[in-house]
Specification:
Strand content: 5-15%
Number of domains: 1
Distance between the termini: 37 Å
CATH architecture: 3-Layer(aba) Sandwich
Number of strands: 2
Largest sheet: 2 strands, parallel
């Protein structure tokens, strides 16, 4: 219902690699580079994130689209790094979707801070809210599996290099 709009509220989409929804929000076209001609593969979602990201606009997303004001792409490496950070510093054992949600919130917060530092007029009293929607228990064979992350996904395991993984956040 558009009569209940709150101009102080910004709804943002977080999208993993291979999904077309980011481009739908940003540019009005549901397209991802993985869909380009001669590169289309049967399982185009070469991402760790499970349960998020699509190559099409569903009916429920189409209804929400007018309210989505920002879109954020989060890499698999960032999701892994954020998940390890949350476990180490908050004791939260999260899955890939939750890690992506928190990573998006951090990225949007950094963007807001940069805008303030550049002198843009922004609301200094920002409250970020996200949903921790999955636990790490269902992700132990992939997202929380060092061998899979390093050897199959070719990503860095955060505790292998404690000096640099937090810098990537």
């Amino acid at each position: 219902n558009n009569n209940n709009n709150n101009n102080n509220l910004t709804l943002a989409l977080v999208d993993p690699p291979g999904s077309a929804l980011y481009n739908k929000v940003r540019y009005g076209v549901a397209y991802a580079s993985q869909q380009r001609e001669q590169h289309f593969i049967k399982n185009q979602y070469n991402t760790l994130a499970e349960g998020i990201g699509l190559d099409r606009v569903t009916a429920n997303f189409a209804r929400a689209l007018p309210y989505v004001k920002k879109a954020v792409k989060i890499s698999d490496q960032t999701a892994v790094d954020v998940a390890h950070y949350l476990l180490q510093y908050s004791g939260l054992f999260v899955g890939s979707s939750s890690a992506m949600n928190v990573a998006a919130l951090l990225q949007l917060s950094k963007q807001q801070q940069q805008q303030q530092n550049q002198g843009h007029k922004t609301n200094k009293n920002i409250l970020g809210i996200t949903i921790i929607c999955d636990t790490g228990q269902r992700h132990v064979t992939r997202f929380w599996n060092r061998d899979f992350i390093v050897n199959t996904c070719k990503l860095q395991w955060p505790s292998d290099n404690t000096d640099t993984w937090k810098e990537r956040l």
